[in-house]
Design a protein that fits this description.
322 residues; alpha/beta; Rossmann fold; UDP-galactose 4-epimerase, domain 1; 2 domains; 7-stranded parallel sheet; 3-stranded mixed sheet; 40% helix; globular; binds nicotinamide-adenine-dinucleotide
């Protein structure tokens, strides 16, 4: 089986590739379980692929038709579409967000559709398709109400995935991910970047600022669990999806204050005291529009799961990334 991961050099793309190599098989669009023979990582950024003959990195821009055709060849069985401009950047630069998150997603879908045997298509959407006044917790069938450009671009991407699936052009699935924490490395331009920074930086002995109030509550998931859920979303039979093709991925609801309290329990007072509270309205304006609690039914029914609690997310980061 040939798999393409767009954004394959990124945080989740590189972990997905590693997990797929370990797993060695996936189910194709005809429902057959097949061995994974090749994983292509398409990304504008340089990837450091694992040393495995099945993996190849292609440096290319998703907005460039030729790069897409070079990566997504006619023998491609699955595309995991992860490449995106993250929330803070998409809000700061409307045009780049539209170009990458929307135009390139449509071009990629059109390219897949044009192949003789279109690949299965898994699109990483986000809880940011929701915002504003919504039922608490948010049910699976809540209307999409994005309050920022990133969420709007993801919502339009979901509709494209849905409509092309409805037309029988391909088998597409959109998975609305919670905020994934703890992300290793440097802060990024996601509005939610602090949700990793307030754990990662103190554990590395570095002071950090939290730009939202301790009472701000978020819907989160660890990288380990989110990768497992992406694979569950891929493996589920087409018939298991409802009429929208979009799934609210399970998560846990935790306040930022409780995240720091969990850090304190795991690593001690001195570490937790490295978090300072400095309110930043631009970040708060985006994050506070995202719903903090969902009542997912469809995702768990497919086999998706949430982390046990935030303490286990901190411990998973220490075990996997430190
Ligand atoms: N991490 C989260 O908390 C989270 C939450 C919800 C949804 N998501 C979604 O999951 C996906 C993966 O997120 P991530 O955290 O790994 O992000 P990331 O920024 O680490 O990875 C995205 C990758 O896409 C690449 N990319 C960006 N523009 C590109 C282009 N024009 N052509 C080719 N590659 C390009 C980047 O170089 C990067 O390596 C994204 O679609 C994101 O919107 C992530």
């Amino acid at each position: 089986m040939r798999i393409v991961i767009t954004g394959g050099a990124g945080f989740l793309g590189s972990r997905l590739a590693a997990k797929l190599l370990q797993r060695a098989t996936l189910t194709d669009a005809r429902g057959q379980v097949r061995e994974i023979s090749s994983i292509v990582l398409l990304d504008v950024a340089a990837a450091s692929p694992p040393d495995d003959r099945r993996v190849r990195a292609i440096a290319g821009d998703l907005t460039d038709r030729e790069s897409v055709a070079r990566a997504v060849t006619p023998d491609t069985d699955t595309v995991f579409h992860l490449a995106a401009v993250v929330s803070g950047q998409a809000e700061a630069d409307f045009d780049i967000g539209m170009r990458v998150n929307l135009d390139a997603t449509r071009m990629l879908l059109e390219h897949c559709r044009s192949l003789k045997t279109p690949p299965k298509f898994v699109f990483t959407s986000s809880l940011a398709v929701f915002g504003g006044t919504l039922p608490d917790p948010v049910p699976d069938d809540a209307p999409v109400t994005p309050q920022a450009s990133y969420g709007a671009q993801k919502a339009i991407g979901e509709l494209l995935v849905y409509d092309m699936t409805r037309k029988g052009f391909l088998d597409g699935r959109s998975l609305r991910l919670p905020t994934v924490t703890v992300r290793p490395g440097k802060p990024n331009k996601a509005a939610s970047s602090f949700a990793s920074g307030i754990i990662r930086e103190p554990l590395a002995g570095v002071d950090t600022c939290c730009p939202v109030a301790p009472t701000t509550t978020m819907w989160v998931q660890s990288p380990r669990t989110v990768i497992d859920n992406l694979i569950v979303g891929h493996e589920a039979p087409a018939s298991a999806f409802g009429q929208t093709r979009s799934i609210n991925v399970p998560g846990i609801s935790v306040s930022v204050g409780d995240m720091v309290a969990a850090l304190r329990r795991v690593a001690g007072d001195a570490v937790a005291q490295r978090v300072r509270w400095e309110f930043e309205p631009a970040i708060d304006r985006i994050v506070s529009t995202w719903p903090a609690r969902f009542a997912p039914v469809q995702g768990p029914a497919l086999g998706m799961r949430a982390d046990a609690d935030f303490e286990s997310i901190v411990r998973a980061y220490i075990a996997d990334d430190m």
